[in-house]
Amino acid sequence: MEIVHVYTRVRSDFGRPCLFSDRGPELSLDLRPDPSLTQEFIQRTTRDQATQARTDMSEHQVNTERFVTESRGMNHTEGGWPKDVDPNEMEQTIRFRKKVEKDEGFMNSIPQLGSVMGHCLQQNNALDIFQEYCSEEDEGEVVEPPSAKTINIFRDPNEVRRTVTCLSWHPDGGKKLAGAYSCLHFQTSQSNMCEDSYIWDIENPNRPELTLKPVSPLVCIEYNPKDPHTLVGGTYSGQIAYWDTRRGSLPVELSSVEHSHRDPVYKIIWLQSKTGTDAFSASTDGQVLWWDVRRLTEPTERLVLDPGREGNMERALGALCLEYEPTMPTKFMVGTEQGVVLSCNRKAKTPAEKIVCTYEGHLGPVQALHRNPFFPKNFLTVGDWAARIWSEDIRDSAIMWTRYQMSYLTDACWSPVRPSVFLTSNMGGVLDVWDVLFKQNEPTLSVKVCDEPLYCLQIQDTGRLVACGSQGGSATLLEFCSGLSSLQKNDKTLLAAMFEREAKREKILEARQREQRLKERSRSEQSDAGRDAIDAIDAQSVQQLMARAEEDFFSVVEAELRRRDDTHQVTTHITETVRTSYTTVSVLHCVNKH
């Protein structure tokens, strides 16, 4: 890698600039001789006079005390860190610096020390001719209507046009733009479709500066913020490719198929690390993989996006977008196909703890996920016909959202310069610019970029240029006016107050809903208890009725049995009487015969 160190100096250190140029002689004045004046000329007599060119000086001697000079040096070494902080670990030092900077003692002592040090530094300063006086006076703000104009259009040079799936700005000044081209419609790609992606010079839209030749069409691409010569991209086949523009169009490293994603890689982001070679990717196969681009044979770490936190691939949620903030190196967020946003922690001890919480609120796949660069706790999502602004502290619902648009939203991002401005693109080919401090019901500026659906957008770090990729293979470069690309007065303060107010409102609504749920639960419990009492009473009455019915039944049976016994006794008596009478009659009949 090329190591470059740039020394910078203020222009005023060199003095006022001198401008020299070669040019021919110019006649400023031409006085012609006048012969008539010779008659008026009077010649004076010559006279000699001596002059001294130097001034008169006198010599005197003074005996002064000798001043002894001594040279001293100071060696500054890094130290003073606590025992639990390793100076070699950048994450620990950044975290400790933030903790110290928030301390009240630090905030009170720095202005006092700064004033003393500033006085010492300015004692030997010469007069600055470039100093601006009365700089504290506020200039009258010029109210300029929001506007945008098209600068260039970069079209796919192939006959079969492909979708611009991802755009990435060059980190050094944004003079180049890398675009990934792919056809994401399943089984609709043609056999003669090109697989190349391009790096464009924003001043030359006629021909790409460099052609990238991957093994499979690129779905996402990202410049390395630490090394502007290197890029990393995710392919349609699920592989990760790494390029060094100084080595040509072919990838330097390529991951193997068996250790890569199973679906297209929709997002890849560089991580904040010492080496500047770490990245992580997400795909719809439900995995997030961490890579070291110096060795892409297999991922260094793996996370399965299982909401049940069991690592089950069958229940994993497909990832479409990632969000990573370098100031929070252990946290990242994932937008899924199911409309759920997962907040994750990479440094968790167990895989179950890596998925911290979920945010549900979209009707479709989460197409865009972006943290506010000025307020990292608030993030922007797009997953249907509306854009939503969330707070990490509130998980049940968003704190702000736009109304549903006529066209489906495809991408969104915050402005890196103005904290209250964000951009959205939709299927109607329109780029909308929203300023939540100005109005929330409708966009501040709507620009019809093209007649084709817009798929992605990427704004430059200065906030003045934005690139939009369309489904027809064209990348349009637009330039915003100064009102949308420069920080306005009190923007941060007003937006912080708005976010705090909306978050407080949502918390109050959540508490009220929680109380209502508790009341309904208590009512249901009371109704269940009353129903149980009624059921108990009914059960007792039923038991009494059954007992009474049994008593009546058995009494009837006993009465019937008694009646039958009495009838049987009477029948037996009659039978015996008849039998006795019959015997007597038989005896008498026999006597009569004899």
From TrEMBL:
One term under GO cellular component: outer dynein arm
GO BP of this protein: cilium movement; outer dynein arm assembly
Domain of life: Eukaryota
Localization per record: Cytoplasm, Cytoskeleton, Cilium axoneme
Record keyword Cytoplasm present: yes
Keyword Cytoplasm: yes
GO molecular function: dynein heavy chain binding; dynein light chain binding
Record key words, sorted: Cell projection, Cilium, Cytoplasm, Cytoskeleton, Dynein, Microtubule, Motor protein, Repeat, WD repeat
UniProt family annotation: Belongs to the dynein intermediate chain family.
UniProt name for this protein: Uncharacterized protein
